[in-house]
Every structure is written in structure tokens, then in C-alpha cells.
TrEMBL record:
InterPro entries: AAA+_ATPase (IPR003593), ABC_transporter-like_ATP-bd (IPR003439), ABC_transporter-like_CS (IPR017871), ABC_transporter_ATP-bind (IPR050166), P-loop_NTPase (IPR027417). The keyword Nucleotide-binding applies. One of its GO terms (molecular function) is ATP binding. The lineage of its organism: Bacteria, Bacillati, Bacillota, Bacilli, Bacillales. It comes from the Bacteria. Residues 2-222 form the ABC transporter domain. This is ABC transporter ATP-binding protein. It comes from Halobacillus campisalis.
Length: 237
């Protein structure tokens, strides 16, 4: 579905956000990107989404409509305060004719009954639910998630992770999830890519062989977590 070949992002002045990234995503695959701060994860997502076009290398997608290939979601919901929830979902994507679909998606993300509420009246979790619905409205073939739950409390985070699982199951959306949360990556993803360094590079990857839904805190996931910590140099011998 997505092939990234020798992609680098060099900023003005010569500083690199990340260098020589090779990556491929199969249709329906959920891939996580873990890495220490500053290794270029957000820059990579901006490049993939088309928000940043100043990159070197090649990005190929098999999406039917390249203009609607990517749905993007950020750490913060980025809702417009003067629009209510359904308007944010519809106008945020420029799809004025999709009000009915927006209402369906609000049901999917658990916002039924809150369609006419304004962002100031939503909790952080509800606002991120609206952002999920907005990112799905264009029916993206590839979903790019940039630390989508890192600003939420632990319980809301787990609820929204489970919501994502339902969405993966229902829509089979190919997904790239940038996160700092190792447990989140291992709970949700088929494969976890580990980036390191400045400029960042892909150092290794770990395949999660367990079927979804997985049990949180499962001993197999705990073992994989140790492997990830080792890759990131966070284990003490
Ligand atoms: N517009 C820019 N101009 C120059 N350097 C930039 C620019 N944007 C990002 N960088 C640099 O590129 C590197 C990667 O930044 P990026 O935000 O992608 O890292 P990250 O892995 O997402 O970090 P974090 O986990 O802290 O969000 C950093 O060193 C950052 O300072």
C-alpha cells in the first residue's frame, strides 16, 4: 500500500530531520514507529502525508485516489472553536456533502448526541474522538497517527486504543502510528519500527506475532517490551 524508498528530509541550513528511511506497509497492516525525542518521527509523518513536500527519495502509494490517500491525526485535536462537533468533522475535511456520513462516524466513535456541542464543552477524550471521526471522513486508505493519545489520561487512552482496534477491524485501514508509548505500540500494531539518532534512522523492527485483540500486560507483550527497551538502550544489565 505504501513504499518509502531512501527518503530523507534535510532542512534549510543542512540539518536533517531524518535520513535514508526505507519502509513499506502492506494493505491493512498496522505499523508503529517508536523512537526517542527528536529522531524525526513527526517530520516523517508530515512528509508522508504531503504536508511537507521538501524531501529526497521516493514515496509510492497504491491508493486508488492519491489525493485522498492519507488521513492524519495529531496529538492535539485541532478543532475549530467556532464550529460545533459535526461542523468540525465536515468542514475540517472540506466535505460539505458528507453530513450524513459524519453523523455515522460520530456514532462509531461514541459521540452520538454531542453533534451540536462546541469544542469548549468536550473533554480531551471526546475532542480526540471527534478528531478520529474527522480523519476517517475522507475514507483514507492510509491513516497516519502522530502520538494521538499522548495528551490523554491513562483510562481515556485505553478506551481510545480499543476504539482504534474496532476501527481497524471494521475498515481494515492501513495505519502508521507514531507513539512514545511502547505498550500502546505492542497492543495495537502488527509491527513496530524503532528509530534512533539525530538525524533519525530506522534501526530495527519487531514483529508482534499475537492476534488482535490482545491482552494488556500479557507475558508475550512484556517480553517484547524488554526487546524494545534493549533496542532503545533503556535496559540495565
Ligand atoms: N522546520 C524545521 N527546521 C529545522 N529543524 C527542524 C524542523 N522541524 C523539525 N526539525 C528538527 O528535526 C528533528 C526531528 O524533529 P521531529 O519533531 O520530527 O522529531 P520527533 O521524533 O517527532 O520528536 P518528538 O518525539 O519530541 O515529537 C529535530 O532535531 C528537530 O529539531
Amino acid at each position: 500500500m505504501l513504499a518509502v524508498e531512501k527518503v530523507s528530509r534535510i532542512f534549510q541550513g543542512g540539518k536533517a530531520g531524518f535520513k535514508n528511511v526505507n519502509l513499506s506497509l502492506e494493505k491493512g497492516e498496522v505499523v508503529g514507529v517508536l523512537g526517542t525525542s527528536g529522531c524525526g518521527k513527526s517530520t516523517l509523518l508530515r512528509v508522508l502525508s504531503g504536508l511537507d513536500e521538501n524531501f529526497e527519495g521516493e514515496i509510492k502509494t497504491e491508493a486508488n485516489d492519491p489525493n485522498q490517500a492519507f488521513g492524519m491525526m495529531f496529538q492535539e485535536p485541532r478543532l475549530m472553536p467556532w464550529l460545533n462537533v459535526w461542523e468540525n468533522i465536515v468542514f475540517g475535511t472540506g466535505k460539505k456533502d458528507k453530513k450524513q456520513e459524519a453523523f455515522e462516524l460520530m456514532k462509531t466513535v461514541g459521540l452520538e448526541g454531542f453533534e451540536n456541542h462546541y469544542p469548549k464543552d468536550l473533554s480531551g477524550g471526546m475532542a480526540q474522538r471527534a478528531a478520529i471521526a474527522r480523519s476517517l471522513l475522507i475514507r483514507p486508505e492510509i491513516l497516519l497517527l502522530d502520538e494521538p493519545f499522548s495528551a490523554l489520561d491513562a483510562f481515556t487512552k485505553m478506551q481510545l486504543q480499543d476504539l482504534l482496534l474496532d476501527i481497524f477491524e471494521k475498515h481494515q485501514t492501513t495505519t502508521l502510528l507514531v507513539t512514545h508509548d511502547i505498550d500502546e505500540a505492542l497492543y495495537l500494531c502488527d509491527r513496530v519500527i524503532i528509530m534512533r539518532g539525530q538525524p533519525g534512522r530506522i534501526e530495527s523492527q519487531i514483529t508482534v506475532e499475537a492476534k488482535r485483540p490482545r491482552k494488556r500486560g500479557d507475558s508475550y507483550l512484556a517480553e517484547l517490551k524488554q526487546d524494545v527497551l534493549k533496542e532503545l538502550d533503556f535496559t540495565k544489565e
